[in-house]
Amino acid sequence: MRPAGFTLPELLVVLAVVGVLLAAGVPGLRGYTRNQQLANAANAFLGALNLARSEAIRRGSRVDLAPRDGSRWENGWVVFANKPGDANLQFDAGDELIYSHDSLPAGLSMATTLSDKSAPYIAYNGNGRTRNNISDRAPQWGSWQFSLDGRTRLVRLGILGRARICNPADDRSCRFTSDPAPATNRNIAPL
């Protein structure tokens, strides 16, 4: 009776086949992983915009979204209710933290263009519309471009406070410009 098991040549053939399959699949897996990082970051930001808007409506008062460090969105962002009478556009002592997002993965970058260039922030008033820091009746709009390994996703915020994600590779109306004028003024399909 022959003992059960595999011979050394059989094991080497199986290992060679597994090695070839792994070598063929790893580059595709890396591209898939990077694409998911890009999509997750854009979706997380869109979620933060929607959270800020819904919280402002629920509370009937201003709620802000701003970079955690006060300047770079890549370093994370916070949704917060600014304490009454506070003109600071960044989260600080006395503000109520609603949500905080960590830094983006290495290599993932963001470019931003906003109608109010005084500071990186988005504020919603109690009726769910964007506002700038000077007046609750003056809207704030803009876009955030997420880029990683030549791929991009764009989060666009319209003057009424509604946001959407688009892919410039698939959507001709989805493009990032340094001019934050409302889309209807640039002969682009409205947001």
From TrEMBL:
Primary site of residence: membrane
Indicate yes or no for the key word Cell membrane.
yes
Pfam families referenced in this protein's UniProt entry, alphabetically: GspH, N_methyl
Keywords, A to Z?
Answer: Cell inner membrane, Cell membrane, Membrane, Methylation, Transmembrane, Transmembrane helix
Q: Which organism is it from?
A: Herbaspirillum hiltneri N3
Recorded hits in InterPro entries, A to Z, give: N_methyl_site, Pilin-like, T2SS_GspH
Protein topology in the membrane = Single-pass membrane protein
Q: Which family does it belong to?
A: Belongs to the GSP H family.
Indicate the segments forming the General secretion pathway GspH domain, all copies. Answer: 41-157
> PROSITE patterns, from UniProt?
PROKAR_NTER_METHYL
Instruction: Please identify the protein, giving its name as recorded.
Output: Type II secretion system protein H
Subcellular localization, per the record? Cell inner membrane
